[in-house]
Amino acid sequence: MPSTTSTGTSTPLRVVVAKPGLDGHDRGAKVIARALRDAGIEVVYTGLHQTPRQIVDTALQEDADGIGLSVLSGAHMTLFTEVLRLLREQDATDITVFGGGIIPDADIPPLLGLGVAALFTPGTTTREITDWVHANVARTDT
Asked: Can you spell out the DSSP letters for 3-64?
């Protein structure tokens, strides 16, 4: 839901959707980006082959409230860990990190323990994801 700023205006959530690493399969990320947009969330889609640094820089430049990573390459442990590290380095831990893709069940608890807020695997509906974002991602400037 949009939040109300100190001037009384309504500001929608802003989420960066990113494809980190060398994975070139972006259909899922584009579907999620569109679903988020259709749910009233501003979306910045970074495109393919982004480094964790590029993703964090984009989130900071765009005043993002959340970062959604789509990882199908098997490098999820490294990529999520680095994005979280860079956010801590920039004192930007108020940006909620979530993601999805092909992530083995055994890797989900360690990622959640590192600070990833949620992980969505195949079979999750776009409605479940948009509802989760509305319920769990807060405006970072309030």
From this structure: EE-TTS-EE--EEEEE-BTT----HHHHHHHHHHHHTT-EEEE--SSB-HHHHHHHHHHTT-
Q: What predicted TM-score, i.e. pTM, was given to this entire model?
A: 0.91
Q: Are 100 and 70 in contact (CB under 8 A)?
A: yes
Extract the tokens encoding 72. 């199908």
Burial class (CB in 10 A: 0-12, 13-18, 19+), 45: buried
Residue 73: strand, helix, or coil: coil
Distances (CA, A) of 102 to 4, 23, 47, 79, 95: 36, 11, 18, 13, 23
pLDDT tens digit sequence for 57-104: 999 999 999 999 999 989 999 999 999 999 999 999 999 999 999 999
CB 20 within 8 A of CB 52: yes
In Å, how far are 43, 67, 96, 100 from 39, measured between CA atoms?
10, 16, 18, 18
Cβ proximity of 89 and 121 under 8 Å: no
Query: pLDDT of 28-48, one tens digit each?
Result: 999 999 999 999 999 999 999
